[in-house]
Specification:
Distance between the termini of chain A: 34 Å
Strand order of the largest sheet of chain A: 16-15-14-13-7-12-11-8-17
Helix content of chain A: 25-40%
Shape of chain A: globular
CATH superfamily of the largest domain in chain A: Dihydrodipicolinate Reductase, domain 2
Number of domains of chain A: 2
Number of helices of chain A: 13
CATH architecture of the largest domain in chain A: 2-Layer Sandwich
Strand content of chain A: 15-25%
Order of helices and strands of chain A: EHEHHEHEHEHEHEHHHHEEEEEEEEEHHE
Structural class of chain A: alpha/beta
Mean pLDDT of chain A: 92
CATH topology of the largest domain in chain A: Dihydrodipicolinate Reductase, domain 2
Largest interface: A-B, 65 and 65 residues
Largest sheet of chain A: 9 strands, mixed
Number of strands of chain A: 17
Radius of gyration of chain A: 24 Å
Oligomer: homodimer
Chain lengths: 504, 504
């Protein structure tokens, strides 16, 4: 385990939900495990007027509600909270950043040298402005005297290919790539990281992990909630930008990458980049055939009325924003040539689940009347684990094949499983960029997504299919799956049916 | 499902233990499931004087004690028992077989045509004599008028290569190969048959099933009991003849055979024969290095004294008969070239278990500090099932690998699992020889075993290692395993330790 340098974390946009719900609780959980450096402090920066004490009270509530370690000794929390400070500034005003510098000097009055993590939990339009303003205060330069400076940037990283490129360019005026940590909290999940361990620490899966043995790959990430109070943001974004471009393509990268030669950030990021660069570009005609978009409509689930998307707060009454996307793609390389890959994500689906389903090809020759479906399901959330489906002999005379399965669940491991933010904050403190997205990967993912954005914009006749809230999206999504009678793997049934069940 | 012809089963040696404990209970269990033909009867033949009624009483007790269906309606048993008859003859007297013919005419007085299964549960020296005597009565010829005639022969089939060849030759004077059913009750076990389904109904295991991915294969069959009251027989036989030559090589055949092109008796038996013919012959020098033999000695398990083998009833005081064999072998073919295969069997080991352990090679490149052991354990008995060991990510920072496993157990299937004898008797009634051993396979297995027998006979200096009853045999057996610090997979600890446990 690497030693963790003393460091200070400065959160911009600290009065927001993320800080209270995720960041401070994650830092507290790290603290409880003794994984924070000996000297650390946290400075919240935002427009809202708080005193240090008021802010401490605000985040104290958050820890008590959201920390995984909330059962811990209250004295530990008291001690932790003392390391938290707050500063109200107008983050859109360059001069105000002098106050940040002053406050930091005040906090770390004794140390000559200090390491800073800037956590940007602000609207994206402020990202490069904050970097610029910090630079003006001399707060981005790092050397042996000053200590290191790192910046964590929340999604969305760009709105399309051009804006992502522009943002990268702007940031590079003030920071080096090695200082920029583009966070994708999906990569912080244990089970996402386990994809690499599963593939590369075992000898038995990798030989099967290619077009020769795999029939198709499905990646699903569904949410059961709707847009809630984020209608204003979401209506300008949609599922393609919000989920596919980042989280789901990153998971795809982990699933399909070549083994790196060393297990280091850049070696791994080189390999996932190669996948993103090998994604077959859709032309605008393909989009209508390869991508299905949908939007949830009003429905009734167990007697309760669920709103349609267009009735949500801050959503345009005739919005065409997709709350569901399902698409088929190909990776044009030696390993995956010809293997269809299916990705879908949506809101107001029957359940919250993220899973990868690998369906293997049939046996080359059928010896038995029926043959077995071989599937490996990697459940990323919830109830993280693995399920392997195979055929066994049906007891009794003859040699009939019966579908069976075996599974492994992470909760069988009695150890503490850190949350995504814990893992990613700790990695940033250690200077490990493995689970952060590199500039070229971000751009490569946008390059894949851009033709879809363009086609939808240019061809309003491409349908936005309605689907009743609580169902698995438009039925047209099943038509994407190659092969007669084949459908997506459904982790559970539509809620508008009565007998919903979960398989894994 | 094939229709089952009406048939009559004639058991020679019917007063013995096998009939009471296994055969009649198995037939009753088939009867309960409606799997016996509409018209069937069973004739017990032996020296012991019984009337039909006495024999019925005798086997009725057996069914009540040993049947899997003993909880069934007692009226069903009553009805079943009425189909059982008995005839006392001197089975060593050719003329007495006329009585068998008469009794059968009596039983089946109404039918012109009848199908017979002769089940030989007698000492092996009588096998060909019974066949000859039946032939003299015209009872082995089969045609459309008479119905079919099949003969099931119990083990041991020969005492060495020469005697096995001789027995085959003699039987061929009276019966065709298609009439001879050499039973190996291990092949009747669901989980042994499942080996073929597991391998050939799934696409994901077969690509790994060769020397390229498999490091070694272990097959263990252990018994916790000693020789009990079979000391007289066993002392002239030993573990090599009693277990290795038949059961364990048959399991090896299933594990290592090429996929047949059709799932039919001869196609499958051709493939297992090819394995037996590819077993690398040991020369006499090899035997000392590749085979470890042992004999159990007196020990104390949980305060109870366990006899040594030489103190068992009917065992010679200076017997060198092996109650334990462990050996290393190679299959010289394209699939298995260079993969060491280890087989062991013994009595008075810590537990009764039969299992196949496939250890896969390490990853070709180690990306992580530690790498995972990939093992597939096929448990044939007891608690039949599968266990797959692999590595997963250890939760928390870094990418440490943690050994995990997932398993499947047959008892999760709620269906009735027929016993080996049920399955094999039913197969014989249906004329399916798949799970019976063909003459050439028997001889090929003896061909492999013969040099070991010869070496032991000719070189008395080859050690018989003692091992305390209740332990996993002589420690020298571990030296067979290629690779430093590697040992056999131990399903549980020695009983002479305190903390015995079972892994699967």
């Amino acid at each position: 385990m690497k030693k963790i340098d003393n460091c200070k974390i400065i959160i911009f946009g600290a009065s927001g939900d993320l800080t209270k719900r995720k960041l401070i609780p994650a830092l507290f959980d790290l603290y409880c495990q003794g994984e924070l450096p000996k000297e650390f402090s946290i400075l919240g920066v935002s427009r809202t007027e708080y005193s240090d004490e008021e802010f401490r009270k605000h985040v104290d509530e958050g820890v008590k509600k959201y920390s995984e370690r909330k059962e811990n000794d209250p004295k530990l929390l008291e001690k932790f909270i003392k390391n938290i400070y707050y500063l109200a500034i107008d983050t859109a005003k360059a001069d105000d950043y002098a106050k940040v510098k002053d406050k930091m000097s005040e906090i770390s009055k004794e140390s000559q040298k200090d390491n800073y993590i800037y956590y940007l939990s602000t609207p994206p339009k402020l990202y490069s402005f904050i970097a610029e303003s910090l630079q003006k205060q001399g707060m981005t330069e790092q050397n042996d005297q000053t200590g290191w400076r790192r910046m964590i940037i929340e999604k969305p990283f760009g709105y399309d290919l051009d804006s992502a490129k522009k943002l990268n360019q702007e940031l590079f005026n003030f920071l080096k790539e090695s200082q920029i940590y583009r966070i994708d909290h999906y990569l912080g999940k244990e089970t996402v990281q386990n994809i690499m361990v599963f593939r590369f620490a075992n000898s038995i899966f990798e030989p099967l992990w290619n077009q020769k043995y795999i029939e198709r790959i499905e990646i699903t990430s569904s949410e059961s909630i709707g847009v809630e109070d984020r209608g204003g943001y979401y209506d300008g974004s949609g599922a393609l930008r919000d989920m596919i471009q980042n989280h789901m393509l990153q998971i795809l990268g982990m699933i399909t990458m070549e083994p790196p030669s060393v297990f280091e950030a850049n070696a791994i990021r080189n390999e996932t980049l190669k996948v993103f660069q090998s994604l077959r570009q859709m032309n605008k005609e393909d989009v209508d055939k390869m991508v299905i978009r949908g939007q949830y409509t009003e429905s009734k689930v167990k007697g309760e009325k669920l709103k349609g998307y267009r009735e949500e707060k801050d959503v345009a009454a005739e919005s065409k924003t997709e709350t569901f996307v399902a698409l088929k793609l190909f990776i044009d390389n030696w390993r995956w040539g010809g293997t269809p890959i299916y990705i879908r994500s949506g809101k107001r689906l029957p359940t919250r689940v993220t899973e990868v389903v690998i369906t293997f090809k049939n046996t080359p020759h059928n010896l038995f009347k029926n043959s077995a479906v071989n599937q490996l399901i990697m459940r990323i959330q919830p109830h993280e684990g693995l399920l392997l489906k195979f055929g066994m002999k049906n007891p009794g005379a003859g040699f009939d094949v019966k579908a069976e399965s075996m599974d492994f669940h992470y909760d069988e491991i009695k150890e503490y499983v850190p949350t995504a933010y814990e893992r990613l904050l700790l990695d940033c403190m250690m200077g490990d960029q493995t689970l952060y997205t590199r500039h070229d990967a971000v751009e490569a993912c946008w390059t894949f997504v851009q033709p879809i954005i363009d086609a939808w914009k240019e061809n309003p006749e491409i349908k936005v299919y309605g689907y009743p809230a609580g169902t698995w999206g438009p039925m047209e999504a099943d038509n994407l799956i190659e092969g007669e009678d084949l459908t997506w793997h459904y982790p559970c049934k539509n809620l508008t049916n009565d007998d919903s069940y979960c398989e894994l």
